[in-house]
Write a structure and sequence with these properties.
Elements (H helix, E strand, L loop, with lengths): L29 H9 L5 E5 L6 H14 L3 E6 L7 H15 L5 H8 L6 H12 L6 E8 L4 H12 L5 E7 L8 H5 L3 E4 L1 H4 L3 H9 L6 H11 L3 H11 L11 H8 L3 H10 L7 H8 L4 H10 L4 E3 L7 E3 L1 H14 L1 H17 L3 H11 L2 H17 L3 H8 L4 H4 L3 H12 L4 H13 L11 H16 L3 H12 L7 H17 L3 H15 L6 H16 L3 H18 L8 H13 L6 H10 L7 H17 L3 H17 L3 H16 L6 H10 L3 H6 L8 H16 L3 H12 L8 H17 L3 H18 L3 H5 L2 H13 L3 H12 L19 H11 L4 H8 L3 H15 L4 H10 L5
Parallel strand pairs: 1-4, 1-5, 2-3, 3-4
Antiparallel strand pairs: 6-7
């Protein structure tokens, strides 16, 4: 194709060729249009990317856009013959004459006459004529392949001296030999490469879904494999649409690109396609050539899908699809060489302390001996880097006979088996493993034996045997500094978790400090993440939500920058962050986030955090009206905790179940709640925790009794139970639960007629909650607390507390019907309706009491409730409001 006509795919050039039309289903890339619009004054636009990246299609879009703006556009597609200056210049001048009448006529005649003009003279003459143009010009040189030194020098000068209205666009597979530094420094150069041309995930979706519906996971896999390379996506699209599979698994552009390279370059590509990443030292080691950096620069200049991994261009990798193409070709041509190269790469990564990469290449080398040695030697470090999943995957590639030589691999097997057993059976498995080694109480513990104790501590946490975990930690604490820093820090971490679960924050923080001292010697981030998360958890348990939230945000930000995305190290921090978000009433998207964390598996998987996460999930589901789903979640918690005899969470799940029953409509709710309460052996479960600072089963039972008393209108008994519960909470622990007790006590005082006491207590409770942003505890307790908050909102005068109250009421499930009611009259009880109707007839309080058989104090109490619901201050205003609402009609 020679020239663009006035419209894309419109008038033909005299040569009979057109500008290529856009591919069927082509996706308009708005971000590239935005990029081009931002650089509308660029003197040179350099579109440099491998074949199949969509360069020509982008240029067609650019031309259509510029033509619509009144710009003259010329497209010249170059070939091998254009490397001869006279031929190129003649074609360029003829192309320009199509749209710019008279331009270059004299120069063409002089060229045709053999006047011996140099390329510089012709282009300077052309610049002079172009400078007189009244309209902008876009000159596109596609399929650039010019290497002639004189012509390159003349074109470089042409670009530097181009008039303001001229924009030159060069589309090429290999970077032109221009010095572009000056243009780049002046902001007159726009460079568009493979990364810019690659389709985003949304663009890939739009392109693929135009032909066929594709599951999101499959779409993301396709995008990951092709990295948005247009030719790769288009090649895969027919198969996705159910059309016949292409004859070759690779796009033609890949095969053609490889075959067009000289033999030496093809050999280099097959060799360097093996490593997952490259630097100059590795290139030199694999190719036997000292100039490793020059090889990389040549690959990059040739646009052979080499992608830099850092700003300094120290590390590179090949585009995934091109790397897969090279590896498949090498394996097909010489399978033994393919394995030998992987072995060599694995050895290089091992010597340069890049263990994960070394192990991956050992797998591909199919060398079981090397794989066993690497995984066994670096197992602990891999765990500390949050790569437990990889460790399991690599273990299954190693024959059992080789595993027996590596204690860490034996431990992986033991851990995998023990995690599915009861704690007693799991400990027997681990004790059998310990018996293979020497007596662990004599002399310093070797890493293998210490690792077994670490696994025993992890299992104790997972199965909620907190005393066993603490006892194991005490055995190790006296020998700190004599064994593996990772294992010591891990055991101390688990001991701190156990103390936190036992409501012993000071002991927990002491072990955290010791663990941080040992972790200081480690390079990985896993233990550091978990120690940080334990600090978050302690603050959460103490009721310091703001501090916990700040630490959690910092931890997640740090983790996302240094840990593997979706890795095990982020599981517990995500659960803690979800618990904080729930308590602070940040419910949007929380169920999905929490469920994703709970579905993952961490190295340290304490039932404490897992059960708390499940209970939080059930509460969220209930707040969203998914009562049956929430009930199923609570049953799941009960089954799990009963299996491990973790009665503290079993009791909490039962308490949540009874609370849900009490908040259901109907007269049977109290009877059903009482039946569920009686079905639990509370005494036996409480006995398991009598020696602890805080008895969680006794707490769950007491809280349930409070709610039952209030449901039966036994408010004095509820207050007595609340006072008993206050004594269960250790100082500085579970401060949110103290606020919950205050809110429940305020409900009882209100119902008993002690309105000022109720208002004062609720105000103090809200001030404490507002400081920490605690909201969920009020919403959980249902309509009684909501009504009390609405009454307080009508009289509260503190601006900060007013805002918190409005926000809190606005969060309530059910919207306006359960928030600020549009018709308060509908909320009056039958008795209150009788009282206001008699008051409207002019009866005194004493007369109303005589008519209804009520004591004077009871009549006053009903009137006070009516005033609060109507948000008025006296009888006259209440009667007027009742008439406005139609209550007296």
């Amino acid at each position: 194709m020679d020239v663009v006509s006035e419209t894309v795919g419109g008038l033909a050039h005299p040569s009979g060729r057109f500008l290529a039309a856009l591919p069927d289903g082509y996706v308009l890339r708005r971000r590239l249009h935005s990029l081009l619009a931002q650089h509308a004054d660029a003197r040179l636009i350099l579109v440099c990317a491998p074949a199949g990246s969509g360069k020509s299609s982008l240029l067609a879009e650019l031309i259509a856009c510029r033509q619509a703006q009144g710009t003259a556009c010329t497209w010249l597609s170059l070939g091998a013959s254009d490397n001869e200056p006279a031929h190129f210049l003649a074609r360029l001048l003829r192309a320009l004459r199509i749209h710019l009448s008279g331009i270059g006529d004299g120069l063409l005649k002089r060229l045709a006459s053999g006047a011996g003009l140099s390329a510089t003279q012709v282009l300077e003459g052309l610049l002079s004529e172009l400078g007189e143009l009244s309209r902008p010009l876009l000159l596109v040189l596609d399929d650039w392949a010019i290497t002639d030194a004189d012509l390159l020098a003349a074109l470089s000068r042409f670009i530097r001296l181009a008039p303001p209205g001229l924009t030159l666009v060069i589309a090429c597979d290999q970077r032109p030999a221009f010095n572009l530094a000056a243009l780049r420094a002046k902001g007159q150069l726009l460079e568009i490469g493979l990364g810019d041309l690659s389709l985003s995930l949304d663009e890939t979706r739009e392109l693929v879904q135009a032909r066929t519906a594709l599951e999101e996971d499959a779409l993301q896999t396709l995008h990951g494999q092709t990295e948005g390379w247009l030719a790769g996506v288009l090649h895969a699209r027919p198969a996705l649409a159910g059309s016949p599979t292409p004859a070759s698994p690779w796009p033609d552009d890949l095969t053609r690109l490889f075959e067009e390279q000289p033999p030496r370059m093809r050999e280099t590509l097959l060799t360097l396609g093996v490593p997952s990443r490259l630097n100059r030292e590795l290139v030199a080691a694999l190719t036997g050539r000292d100039e490793g950096q020059e090889v990389l620069e040549e690959l990059e200049a040739r646009q052979l899908f080499l992608i830099p991994l850092d700003r300094e261009r120290g590390w590179y990798r090949f585009h995934r699809q091109f790397a897969a193409f090279l590896q498949e070709r090498l394996r097909r041509e010489n399978a033994e060489r393919f394995r030998q190269l992987h072995f060599k790469v694995s050895l290089w990564f091992t010597n340069h302390h890049m263990q994960a990469l070394a192990i991956e290449h050992a797998c591909l080398a199919e060398d079981a001996e090397m794989l066993a040695a690497l995984v066994g030697g670096y197992g602990l470090e891999l765990i500390n880097r949050g790569q437990l999943r990889r460790l399991y995957r690599w273990r299954h590639r190693i024959p059992d006979a080789l595993v027996q030589r590596q204690p860490i691999l034996m431990l992986v097997d033991a851990w995998d088996k023990a995690a599915t057993l009861s704690l007693a059976e799991a400990n027997r498995v681990l004790d059998d493993l310990l018996a293979c080694w020497t007596n662990l109480d004599e002399g310093p513990l070797q890493d293998g034996r210490l690792a077994v104790l670490a696994v025993k501590a992890m299992l104790a946490l997972q199965k909620d045997d907190l005393s066993a975990c603490v006892a194991l930690v005490r055995r190790i604490e006296t020998r700190l500094g004599q064994q593996s820093a990772f294992l010591e820090a891990a055991i101390l971490l688990m001991g701190a978790l156990a103390h936190a679960a036992l409501a012993q924050p000071e002991q927990a923080r002491r072990l955290i400090g010791l663990a941080r001292q040992r972790n200081h010697f480690l390079e990985g981030h896993y233990l550091d993440m978990q120690l940080g998360n334990l600090e978050v958890f302690l603050n959460l348990q103490q009721g310091r939500l703001c501090q916990a939230d700040m630490l959690s945000r910092q931890l997640l930000s740090r983790g996302r920058s240094c840990m593997e995305p979706g890795g095990a190290a982020m599981v517990l921090p995500e659960i803690c962050a979800s618990l904080i978000a729930y308590q602070q009433g940040r419910f949007e998207g929380l169920e999905e986030r929490l469920r994703a964390a709970l579905d993952a598996v961490d190295v340290i998987n304490p039932i404490d955090l897992y059960a708390r996460g499940m209970l939080c999930l059930a509460r969220l589901q209930r707040l969203q009206g998914q009562n049956r789903v929430a009930q199923n979640t609570l049953v799941e918690v009960q089954n799990l905790t009963a299996r491990h005899q973790s009665w503290r969470f079993y009791a909490q799940a039962v308490a949540e179940e009874i609370l849900a029953l009490l908040q259901e409509p109907g007269t049977e709710r109290i009877r059903r709640a009482e039946q569920r309460l009686k079905a639990v052996d509370w005494e036996r479960q409480m006995g398991c925790y009598e020696q602890q600072n805080f008895n969680p089963v006794r707490w769950a039972l007491g809280l349930t009794r409070v709610r039952l008393h209030q449901a039966r209108h036994n408010y004095s008994e509820a207050l007595h139970e609340i006072n008993q519960l206050r004594g269960l909470l250790p100082p500085g622990w579970q401060e949110l639960q103290r606020l919950r007790l205050d809110a429940l006590a305020a409900v009882s005082y209100q119902r008993l007629g002690y309105h000022e006491r109720a208002q004062s207590l609720l105000t103090q409770c809200l001030l404490g909650a507002e400081r920490e942003g605690a909201r969920a505890l009020f919403i959980e307790e249902g309509a009684e607390v909501r009504d009390l908050l609405q009454r307080l909102e009508s009289v509260e005068r503190q601006p900060a507390l007013q805002g918190f109250l409005r926000e809190l009421i606005g969060l309530w499930p059910g919207g306006q019907a359960e928030g600020e009611q549009e018709n308060p009259g509908e909320a009056l009880t039958e008795r209150e309706l009788e009282v206001i109707r008699l008051a409207a007839e002019g009866l005194s309080n004493e007369a109303i009491g005589q008519c209804l058989g009520l004591a004077l104090g009871t009549v006053k109490w009903h009137l006070h409730n009516i005033y609060e619901k109507f948000r008025v201050r006296n009888r006259t205003q209440a009667i007027r409001r009742a008439r406005d609402l139609g209550v007296l009609a």
